[in-house]
Amino acid sequence: MSRYFYYLVFVNMLANVVASVPKILLAKKSEGAIVSMILAIFIGLALCYIVARFFNAFPGQGLPELMGKYMPGWFGKLLLLFIAGAWSVAGLITLVTYSFLLKRFLTPDMPLVFITSILLFFISYGILMKTSSVLYTVEFVLLCCLPVIVLIMIKSYTTPELEWDFIREAMMHTYELPSFSALSASTYLFLGGFNLIIFNRFFTKKHKITIKQILLIGLLGGGVLFTTYFIPIGMNGFEGIEKIAYPWIFTSDTLRLDLGVIERILFVFLILYLAISFLSILIHWHVVLELTKSVITTKRFKFKDINLTPYIIVGVIWLGSIQITKYLTEYQLSLFSSYFFNLLLCSLFGLISLFWFILRRAKS
Amino acid sequence: MPFKNRKSDVEVELEWLINELKPSSDILHKPLRLDDKQAELVYIKSVVDGAQLQQIVIKPFFELASEQHVEAYLKSLPNQQEFTSKEQVLLELTKGSVVVKLKDELLLFEIKKVNTDTVRETNIEPTIMGPQYALSEDLATNLNLIRQRYHKPSLTVETMEIGKKSNQSLAIIYDEEYVLDGVLEQIKSQLESLDEPVVQTSTQIQRFINNQKRSLIPIMMMTERTDRVVYNLAGGKVVLLLDGSPTTIIAPAIFWDFMTSMEDNYGMYWVTKFSKFLRYLGLFVSLILPGLYVAATSFNPEVFRVELALSIAGSRIGVPYPSFIEVLFMLIFMELLTEASIRLPKAVTGTATTVGGLILGTAATEAALASNIIIIIVGAVAISTFVIPINEMSFAIRFMRYLLLLAATLAGLAGLTLGLIGLLMYVANRDSFGEPYFKIFFKKKQAETRVKPS
């Protein structure tokens, strides 16, 4: 697989470590979170493999092109709009989560709408870019973040504050029936590969998909899941961990860089996640924009030869996200995210059958 | 014969040429005559090398026995030029050619006088190792300099004329074997569609064929170093060389090219890696330091460790305005100083920098108009901007700094981070003649500068 595929997967994994996913998992700490996580690794890898295999069969074509070829027009358009809706919610969750985080921890003096607008301003420029430019940006930012991620990992695993006894205590709840919301939340970490529905336009060559590559993704995903679930427990204790609003922010604030210019790792962590959440929103909404552009092909929105459709979509995104940011509370956010993960996992099976259908039509 | 008195075509043409050039005082129309030998010379005195003309045209004319001999001699001269149309001849005359009418024929010879062919020392991009001479301001000399460093039969030089009024010659140089055809065609078509009356320097071309009305970052690289030209030719790039300009431009150029100094190829491995690291550090520092200062003093003093936060706050005691005005104030003065030292005559530059840098800086802190730390920051920023080897890029970075300062002023550390990503996206979204401008290359250089499939 092309290295850019890993970036798509990896950004999605990292971006969701910070907010809703660990919260949902920790809420189910004694209702089968661990088994759900283990199951999720297998389901996630299978989904990853399927989507990579499917799009590898059609190099250089995104889902809209395939739909146009093998599906009746109105049905395809309806389906694409539905997918665009799901993806915009995915981006929105990250956006709102991070706006709340910024408001609470980094820039408490600024109004929430202003924080969201600043994020949206840069994102709107980003999603209007070419698909290849989006990937180059993702690659560079991820590479810059990598040393910081490694630093935080090393710090959090080596700090004396990490009590392995708490983790052992959490491990005792392994033999429990899995919970669906924990399963869907942890499977969500593996779904970055589905961004191929648009980004496959960039992958114009056929690649080999080997078992090693899938295992690598599994290893990364397993590591991320393990870290995201057990480290907060190890730092903050097993009792009452589910009551913390942002478990990972708490966790990172227990870490100190004794000799660093920046003493509290919290701020390093916040900046890092600002970058990674940004990438995640960028990827999701770029997909939304491209999908919607492929559906709305009318030439009515024009001004001096410039097609206004993408700008109208961006405007709608602005309006929607600012309204929703104003309306939501932190509790509602995590509740709705959980609903969204559940729904998404179910509808993914629909998407997979769609892939299968297209593949069959393409063969005949 | 009935048509005896009628002038021949050649005479009409010659008369037309003279009439076209007539009002100038430096046009010369000289008949040569000895026994039965006859010839006429037409040229512009101020662009033709008189001594050479004497040596290779006039003297042999009087020494050779007959008109046939003269004709044979002249036609075998290597600097004879093609004669395609009257207009072309007229243009060539303005560049320093001589028209010789012999019998019923017009012959055209290039006997230019060039006063700009002295090769200058490297001035814009000096290095310790590597060639110390740059280019001259004459096209033929420059071509010679490049050809002498790159001996390969596939090196191709094409010339064309640009500038609707000035008709300056432009050489397009590339290695046939490695050049990317798409890039070459795009450059050529853009040059042909160029509609500018006067083009003076090669850097101007880079602004004209940029695809964008308003651009911030250069997508073609200006250089005066012949080793850089050769290095890039071997990598399959296209080099544009304008007559009268001491710099070439190289296309396509991507971001990393601008961060490369030629010395990176000459020094020891670790030494050059270290200097490369310094350069990127300089780039980073000069971009974010001003914004970081604003973010750290006005938005998030808690981010840094307590001692640092306190010492920054302590040094700002008595400064009467918010931190972004302080930064802007000092940065603008630093920029003015830089501008002034570029424009000033060399003799005065020293005074300007001393007065500006030393006295202004010390006095500003003593008058509590700026904190001590901001003076350090501005100094660091100024120095690290100059670490970037290619001038145009460092000017672009100079400008980008203010955008980041704005972002940090509006939204603190978050704004600074987002601003950096924003700039990154702007750069990643550009391309230079179809080549992605900001892409990370993992493979070795040989694999990336692919050899054209034959």
TrEMBL record, chain A:
Supply the alphabetized keyword list.
Germination, Membrane, Transmembrane, Transmembrane helix, Transport
Q: Which InterPro entries match?
A: Spore_GerAB
Which locations, inside or outside the cell, does it occupy? Membrane
**Membrane topology recorded in Swiss-Prot or TrEMBL:** Multi-pass membrane protein
**Has keyword Membrane?**
yes
According to the UniProt record, one GO cellular component term is: membrane
Q: Where are the transmembrane segments?
A: 5-26, 32-55, 75-98, 110-128, 140-157, 177-199, 211-231, 265-287, 308-327, 339-359
Decide whether keyword Transport is in the record. Answer: yes
Coiled coil ranges (UniProt) are none
Where is the secretion signal located? none
Entry's Gene Ontology BP terms: spore germination
The family classification in the record reads: Belongs to the amino acid-polyamine-organocation (APC) superfamily. Spore germination protein (SGP) (TC 2.A.3.9) family.
Task: Indicate what this protein is called per its UniProt record.
Answer: Spore germination protein
**What is the source species?**
Mesobacillus persicus
TrEMBL record, chain B:
A GO CC term attached to the entry: plasma membrane
Q: How does this protein sit in the membrane?
A: Multi-pass membrane protein
Residue ranges crossing the lipid bilayer per the database entry: 277-299, 319-337, 369-390, 402-428
What protein family does this chain belong to? Belongs to the GerABKA family.
Where found, per UniProt? Answer: Cell membrane; Membrane
Which one Pfam family would you cite for this protein?
GerA
Q: Which GO terms describe its biological process?
A: spore germination
Q: What is this protein called?
A: Spore germination protein
Sorted keywords for this record are: Membrane, Transmembrane, Transmembrane helix
Organism encoding this protein: Mesobacillus persicus
InterPro entries the UniProt entry points to: Spore_Ger (IPR004995), UPF0353/GerABKA_families (IPR050768)
